[in-house]
């Protein structure tokens, strides 16, 4: 009997200890959850954190026609709403990652119990909500088992809070917006764009299955890695199997989809590639100043790379594309001509400079190179750095056929790039000032200097319309007034010149009596000299400033021939004034800026100014029309591009002006129709590098063809509605612009001939 009592006593003792241990363990679990929720094991997200998770959203650059043309980001993430997700993507996600997603409240008890019993061999039983909690608030965490347990507890707590805070649909969207799909794609929208070049809503079932399959291990199942093609295909098909198992698709559909290959339209996004790269960089510099002047309500600055701003720009994605295509199409041909023209020439590509000047140019190029910068940072001496430029090195170089791998001495690569022609091109609407296209160079990755907003170059004869506008306004003359094209000398001392000035015409000829319209059409220098002699240089400078030119203009008679450096942006803005009936509208590139919630935080107001009256503006337009009908830009009417033959054959009115600097280092063309003004500059980086002859180095050959190719593409696109109509003629026009009248004849059956009206000879 004593033994029996002892056994009963021992059992009771074990029973009591078991329940004590259970109670302590249960209490410990409760305390663990409480301590975790109170932040004892690290900060837990607050209500505000859950309401507004730090999602590191990219700023989008949006064109006027609604296309995202670029982003500013640390992580390339652009949120998508649940309504924008295809249902087969949502169902594939749930079927593969969390079959009981709609049944639990953040934690799948059945799955968790199975994971505990099997010690995690069949996975960690993380629900979609738990994975979202991990991605949003603490990442992967520690691999140490104790810390891992604490992390899991925090994950459960956050998941439960998320379920209380958001609907199931919102959790799905949040999750897909957070996932890193590698290759710079964070979130499903970036992934769809980079891998498939489409929006999420346009993803097919098999494409959706591919992205869901990547979630298990994005790096391992990276579809852009050709060596893992079979692995990725198998994983996609596993997802299709899960979709069939859960009734999302039929077995027949699954088998049909499994046979499809993986097709990518892989287009990685970067700051140096894609559309409007030069414009995007110009915009970035602008936004760096903007964030300092437009603070948040709490007084802090917006983060351009994390705050998900939406910058609605004036750029038209199609016009931008056509501009970039036109630049490449023409310069690809012109570059071949330049290489051919400089082949075998001493000191090529430089012309008329001394060997010492050439050495200075090359030395400066070496010091500006990335090679010099890196070697200097690594403590290399100047002698060591200079020697390295003569050692053949493997490198990639830019060509118009694509990047080329080659073995080349760095010094030879510098000389190669000195041969490369550069360009700046901008198109804008004269009435609104909206910039529609911006091409700052031929390739941003290799040539980062922006020749639209940064590079001021000598404008040549494209400056002459400013002079003619001044003369028409101040002297009360018209395009039909006549003047004598003859040898002309401005004496020393007049208008401050320190020597006699005798400008000559580019062809060396004098035409005698001609109208002002003919003089501008043929860029007659002697006429320009006579006009500036009448109005004075200061009046012309004042006119240019009123037209929006901010570059420094010397108050000298030589500006009549364009001896002044101005940017493409300023030139197009100034010329547009004439197309806009004398009203200057400052070129603008932003329509509005919104925060990530769609609230408008900035909407720039156009800057306008009346410069000349409608009659004067229209007279200048008619003068510039003469350039394209019978002057240096006439090839736009019948085609051709000088050394290259292009078929333009424009029949509509076009106001334009070519320009060429004296040594052919700068070629310009400004062309306008009523609702679009476009300016182009072409030349080498160094002014000493250029064509040796004017036939190839003039603006009509270097720049005008780009305008023609661009406009031909624009006219072919009916969505753009680029005008072919005449410029609007002012009511009661008081300046004579129709310079040719039929000869009076008695015989009405005779064919009339055109003769200039010689009655007006006021100059």
Automatic annotation (TrEMBL):
Biological or metabolic pathway of the protein: Cell wall biogenesis; peptidoglycan biosynthesis
Penicillin-binding protein transpeptidase domain location: 425-675
Cellular localisation: Cell membrane
Record domain Glycosyl transferase family: where: 66-243
Keyword Glycosyltransferase in annotation: yes
UniProt xrefs under Pfam families: Transgly, Transpeptidase
Presence of keyword Glycosyltransferase: yes
Annotated GO MF terms: penicillin binding; peptidoglycan glycosyltransferase activity; serine-type D-Ala-D-Ala carboxypeptidase activity
InterPro entries with a match to the protein in the record: Beta-lactam/transpept-like, Glyco_trans_51, Glycosyltr_51/Transpeptidase, Lysozyme-like_dom_sf, PBP_transglycosylase, PCN-bd_Tpept
Keywords for the protein's UniProt record, in alphabetical order: Carboxypeptidase, Cell membrane, Cell shape, Cell wall biogenesis/degradation, Glycosyltransferase, Hydrolase, Membrane, Multifunctional enzyme, Peptidoglycan synthesis, Protease, Transferase, Transmembrane, Transmembrane helix
Gene Ontology cellular component list: outer membrane-bounded periplasmic space; plasma membrane
Signal peptide (from-to): none
Coiled coil start-end: none
SUPFAM superfamilies reported in the protein's UniProt record: beta-lactamase/transpeptidase-like, Lysozyme-like
Main location: membrane
Organism domain of life: Bacteria
Family: In the C-terminal section; belongs to the transpeptidase family.
Protein name: Penicillin-binding protein 1A
Species this protein is from: Flavobacterium cucumis
């Amino acid at each position: 009997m004593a033994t029996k009592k002892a056994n009963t006593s021992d059992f009771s003792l074990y029973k009591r200890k078991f329940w004590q241990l259970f109670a302590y363990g249960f209490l410990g679990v409760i305390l663990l959850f409480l301590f975790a929720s109170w932040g004892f094991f690290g900060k837990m997200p607050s209500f505000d954190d859950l309401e507004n998770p730090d999602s590191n959203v990219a700023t989008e650059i949006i064109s006027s026609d609604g296309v995202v043309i670029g982003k500013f980001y640390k992580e390339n993430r652009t949120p998508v709403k649940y309504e924008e997700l295809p249902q087969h993507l949502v169902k594939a996600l749930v079927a593969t990652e969390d079959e009981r997603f709609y049944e639990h409240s953040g934690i799948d008890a059945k799955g968790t119990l199975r994971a505990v019993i099997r010690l995690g061999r069949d996975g960690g039983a993380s629900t979609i909500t738990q994975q979202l909690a991990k991605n949003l608030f603490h990442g992967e965490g520690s691999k140490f088992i104790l810390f891992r347990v604490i992390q899991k507890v925090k994950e459960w707590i956050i998941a439960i809070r998320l379920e209380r805070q958001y609907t199931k649909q919102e959790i799905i969207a949040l999750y897909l917006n957070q996932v890193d799909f590698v290759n710079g794609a964070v979130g499903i929208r970036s992934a769809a764009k980079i891998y498939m070049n489409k929006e999420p809503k346009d993803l097919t079932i098999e494409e959706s299955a591919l992205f869901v399959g990547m979630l298990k291990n994005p790096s391992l199942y990276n579809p852009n890695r050709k060596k893992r093609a079979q692995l990725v295909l198998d994983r996609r098909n596993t997802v299709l199997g899960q979709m069939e198992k859960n009734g999302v698709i039929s077995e027949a559909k699954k088998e049909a989809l499994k046979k499809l290959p993986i097709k990518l339209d892989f287009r990685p996004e970067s700051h140096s590639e894609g559309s409007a790269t030069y414009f995007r960089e110009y915009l970035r510099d602008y936004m760096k100043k903007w964030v300092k002047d437009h603070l948040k309500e709490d007084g802090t600055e917006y983060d351009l790379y994390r705050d998900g701003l939406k910058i609605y720009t004036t750029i038209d994605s199609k016009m931008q594309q056509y501009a970039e295509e036109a630049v490449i199409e023409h310069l690809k041909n012109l570059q071949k001509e330049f290489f051919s023209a400089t082949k075998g020439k001493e000191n090529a590509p430089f012309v008329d400079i001394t060997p010492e000047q050439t050495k200075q140019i090359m030395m400066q190029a070496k010091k500006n190179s990335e090679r010099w910068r890196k070697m200097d940072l690594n403590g290399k001496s100047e002698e060591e750095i200079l020697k390295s430029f003569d050692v053949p090195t493997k490198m990639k170089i830019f060509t118009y056929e694509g990047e080329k791998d080659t073995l080349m001495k760095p010094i030879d690569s510098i000389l190669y790039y000195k041969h490369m022609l550069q360009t700046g091109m901008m198109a804008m609407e004269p009435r609104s000032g909206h910039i529609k296209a911006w091409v700052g160079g031929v390739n941003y990755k290799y040539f980062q200097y922006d020749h639209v907003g940064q590079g001021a170059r000598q404008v040549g004869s494209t400056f002459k319309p400013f002079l003619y506008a001044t003369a028409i306004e101040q002297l009360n003359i018209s395009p039909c007034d006549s003047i004598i094209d003859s040898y002309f000398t401005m004496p020393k001392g007049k208008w401050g010149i320190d020597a006699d000035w005798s400008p000559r015409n580019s062809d060396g000829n004098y035409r005698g009596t001609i109208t002002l319209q003919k003089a501008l059409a043929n860029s007659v220098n002697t006429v320009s000299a006579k006009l500036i002699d009448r109005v004075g240089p200061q009046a012309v400078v004042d006119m240019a400033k009123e037209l929006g030119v901010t570059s420094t203009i010397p108050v000298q008679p030589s500006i009549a021939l364009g001896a002044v450096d101005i940017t493409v942006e300023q030139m197009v803005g100034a010329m547009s004034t004439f197309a806009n009936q004398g009203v200057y509208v400052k070129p603008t590139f932003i329509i509005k800026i919104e925060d990530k919630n769609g609230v408008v935080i900035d909407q720039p107001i156009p800057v306008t100014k009346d410069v000349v009256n409608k009659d004067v503006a229209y007279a200048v337009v008619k003068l510039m029309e003469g350039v394209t009908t019978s002057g240096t830009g006439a090839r736009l009417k019948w085609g051709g591009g000088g050394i290259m033959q292009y078929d333009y054959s424009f029949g509509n009115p076009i106001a334009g002006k070519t320009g060429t600097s004296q040594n052919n280092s700068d070629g310009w063309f400004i062309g306008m129709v009523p609702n679009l003004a476009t300016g182009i500059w072409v030349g080498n980086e160094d002014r000493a590098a250029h064509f040796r002859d004017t036939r190839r180095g003039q603006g009509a050959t270097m720049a005008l063809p780009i305008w023609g190719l661009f406009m031909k593409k624009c006219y072919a696109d009916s969505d753009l509605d680029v005008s072919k109509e005449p410029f609007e003629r002012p009511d009661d026009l008081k300046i004579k612009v129709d310079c040719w009248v039929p000869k009076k004849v008695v015989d009405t059956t005779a064919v009339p001939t055109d003769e200039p009206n010689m009655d007006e000879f006021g100059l």
